[in-house]
Write a structure and sequence with these properties.
The structure holds two protein chains of two kinds. Chain A is about 40% helix and about 15% strand. Chain A is of the alpha/beta class. In chain A, the strands form four sheets. In chain A, strands 2-8-7-6-5-3-4 form a seven-stranded mixed beta sheet, sandwiched between helices. Chain A has a four-stranded antiparallel beta sheet with strand order 11-12-15-14, covered by helices on one side. In chain A, helix 2 runs antiparallel to helix 10, helix 3 packs across helix 10 and helix 11 packs parallel to helix 14. Chain B folds into two domains: about 100 residues, no CATH class; about 190 residues, Glutaredoxin (3-Layer(aba) Sandwich), CATH 3.40.30. In chain B, helix 6 packs across helix 13. The longest helix of chain B is centred in the N-terminal third of the chain and has 29 residues. Chain B is elongated. The chains are: A alpha/beta, B alpha+beta.
Chain lengths: ~400, ~300
């Protein structure tokens, strides 16, 4: 069981001395950062703000800390080797890296779900337009859950299945293991977008047997501008890096070059060392918790919010009604109502921060002809009092509409 | 409509505050999209509406509901009020520039630019009370007033300035330098008249009349320049009169004799009778061509009155 009082002390923003700490319910977009992450980044800038692989003491310290972060991340997702961990700016960059390095050719089929974040849809649509790959959409169930039958029907001849693990739209977690199994049986590679799942549940790449995986640091208590792209080493070695230059080659002449091995050949240019070190610290911070406790805590809050929202007839929840299937996300809307005003009013009335819009899943909203929605996303630092404050203030707004 | 109001309001507030400047920019973007037949996609209207409703909801759910329901109508109402009040502000500004009072010529109502009503203060003719008077200037007139008996210079000018002031009145003394500046600059037909609204200043009136008759208009003008600007306590002390006259190298005995003659007293009485025909109710009262100003206005007011087109 989570010790919330202890956890909240670790987040400076939740302990403002003037008493106006936000009720932050937008962690699916951006998690808060524990003080230890910020201190680790400050430590880099204050004490060893140098380049990785420089031979002087400061540079050596950077090399050591970046390696430590890579080891922490590798262990966190149970990668076989630290070389399978490529640091990126975010999930989007990871998926783009794959899209542009996999040497897809005209006619190759890429399979995605019907509620992908733009970061896992646009790169493939762009390749469709540029080189003629085929992008197929797996229709889900009406309640937003994954339809394995539909998937099985479409898998034949697919080169890559690139699919979201936990959806930022409704919090539904797709059956990754089954998907991967079916895909592998059909000789398809699988890339998982775990941006929304890795902050909330244990991800074991070996257990999943996933080929590629991408996530962001900023949703899992880490700094912005950090992310990780994982790939099985033998697959990474076959990829052709699309972003090259500094730090990616062993040597070069005027007419030749020799690329470095993975992961360096994919990490072009000077890296975000402070961010990478901060990400390592975030992993360290998360490691102290049992993910089952985090899931249980989020479910408790989600259940309360869901039950209260169900009492308001106008409100429609996106995804399954049962919060068990929605992780820490409650995304809702009122027909013919612009949900932006809810967000603004909650913020103005009680410092309650939730998110409105189409949450980068424009395709789903366009298909369902829904204008926008308001999303509450919970994390380990949220309390029942915060959930209650949200419901109290939401009810006030509903009354005046 | 809320966008338009927001643009104007935030545009003005944005002059002083960067955060409001950003809102003004958003409002402009919203309007620009509307006039180009595109939807306002900035969420600006919702942002503003949300901010307003959240303030009201904290006090009254009922009123928040009402405002939400009638938001568009209320926006129109506020827009009309804003346009009206903006026009009124410009009108007030114009009045203040031209008449020295936001409310119009000699109007003594509250004026934000002159909150203490300094430009309308007078010394009343009856009771010699100092301050803001509420009499109307409608009755003030030069019709039937024989101006020929008063001191006059530049009589061939097309413009006429008639200054009626009192040596003991602070507001007459306050405005006198501006009137002199105006006379110097514009060279109008200038008639100077002393009206003893307050205190015992008749002896100065008699002496002045004598100076005028013996030494002429220029000497009278110089004496008045002194009497309206020198220390009030000093000039109002009868014992100092001879010293004052002597300082101008006047023949003190001759002037005293002339001033104390029954004819002089009668003539000064006649002047007061003529001034009363103007229906003046306080000093200073200044006639400039077809306008009359009661109270000490700023110099620009007199200058505007004499100009053909306000500024020139």
């Amino acid at each position: 069981m989570l010790n919330l009082d202890k956890i909240r002390v670790d987040f400076n923003i939740l302990n403002k001395k003037d008493g106006v700490s936000p009720i932050y319910l937008d962690s699916a977009c951006m998690s808060l950062k524990p003080n230890s992450v910020i201190e680790a980044m400050n430590d880099y800038y204050f004490n060893f703000p140098a380049c990785d692989r420089s031979l002087h003491k400061l540079g050596s310290n950077v090399t050591k800390k970046v390696k430590e972060a890579r080891e922490l991340v590798a262990k966190f997702i149970n990668a076989k080797s630290i070389d399978e961990i490529i640091f990126t700016r975010n999930t989007t960059e990871g998926i783009n890296l794959l899209a542009n390095s996999l040497d897809l050719v005209k006619g190759d089929i890429v399979l995605v779900s019907d509620k992908e974040h733009n970061s896992n849809l646009i790169p493939w649509l762009l390749l469709r337009d540029k080189i003629g790959i085929e992008v197929k959409i797996i229709p889900g169930n009406v309640d937003g859950t994954f339809n394995l039958d539909n998937f099985s029907k479409l898998i034949s001849g697919v080169k890559l299945v690139s699919i979201v693990h936990t959806s930022n739209l409704d919090g539904v977690t797709n059956p990754a293991k089954e998907i991967i199994e079916i895909a592998h049986k059909n000789n398809a590679l699988v890339c998982l977008d775990v941006a929304q799942s890795i902050p909330h549940r244990k991800i074991d790449v070996q257990d999943l047997d996933v080929d590629f995986l991408a996530f962001s640091g900023h949703k899992m208590l880490g700094p912005t501008g950090t992310g990780v792209f994982y790939g099985k080493q033998k697959l990474l070695e076959k990829l052709t890096p699309f972003l090259v230059g500094g730090d990616t080659v062993e040597f070069s002449t005027y007419d030749s070059y020799k690329m470095l091995e993975v992961p360096e050949k994919f990490e072009a240019g000077l890296q975000n060392y402070a961010g990478i070190i901060g990400l390592g610290e975030a992993v360290k911070y998360l490691n102290q918790f049992d993910f089952e406790d985090i899931k249980e805590h989020e479910l408790k809050l989600n259940t309360y919010i869901t039950e209260e929202l169900k009492k308001i007839p106008q409100i429609k929840i996106i995804g399954p009604e049962n919060p068990v299937y929605r992780s820490g996300i409650v995304n809702f809307y009122i027909e013919s109502t612009d949900m932006h005003k809810f967000v603004i009013m909650l913020d103005e009335m009680a410092n309650i921060e939730i998110r409105s819009g189409q949450h980068c899943v424009h395709s789903w909203f366009a298909d369902k002809k829904i204008y926008n929605s308001a999303r509450v996303s919970l994390y380990l630092y949220n309390t029942m009092e915060e959930a209650e404050a949200f419901i109290t203030n939401l009810n006030k707004i509903i009354k005046i509409l | 409509m809320p966008c338009l109001i927001a643009l104007i309001v935030f545009g003005i507030m944005g002059i002083f505050s960067a955060s409001h400047r950003a809102l003004a920019k958003e409002a402009f973007d919203c309007i620009f999209r509307r006039v180009t037949f595109r939807p306002c996609n900035t969420g600006f209207q919702d942002k503003i509406k949300g901010k307003i409703l959240s303030k009201i909801i904290a006090r009254s759910t009922f009123w928040a509901k009402m405002v939400n329901k009638h938001y568009e109508i209320l926006s129109w109402v506020f827009f009309i009020l804003m346009v009206g009040s903006t026009a009124y502000v410009f009108y007030g500004g114009y009045n203040f520039y031209v008449y020295g009072s936001c409310n119009g010529l000699n109007e003594s109502g509250f004026c934000a630019f002159d909150p203490k009503g300094e430009n309308n203060k007078t010394t009343t003719v009856e009771g010699a009370a100092c301050g803001i008077t509420k009499d109307s200037e409608e009755n003030l007139t030069l019709d039937g007033v024989n101006l020929e008996i008063f001191s006059t210079i530049n009589s061939d000018s097309e413009d006429t300035v008639v200054f009626i002031g009192c040596y003991d009145c602070d507001y007459s003394r306050k405005v006198y330098p501006d009137i002199m500046k105006l006379i110097e600059k514009k060279k109008p037909n200038y008639i100077l008249a002393h009206y003893p609204a307050k205190g015992d200043t008749m002896f100065l009136g008699y002496a002045g009349y004598a100076v005028r008759k013996i030494y002429g208009e220029e000497a009278f003008g110089k004496l008045n320049n002194y009497l309206f600007t020198a220390d009030k306590e000093y000039i109002l002390n009868k014992a100092n009169l001879n010293a004052i006259l002597a300082s101008f190298n006047f023949d003190v005995k001759k002037i005293n004799d002339y001033a104390n003659s029954p004819e002089t007293k009668q003539m000064v009485e006649n002047e007061i009778v003529e001034l009363n025909k103007t229906n003046l109710y306080g000093t200073p009262t200044i006639f400039i061509n077809d306008k009359v100003f009661v109270g000490p206005k700023p110099y620009r007011v007199y200058n505007s009155a004499i100009n053909r087109f306000i500024f020139f």
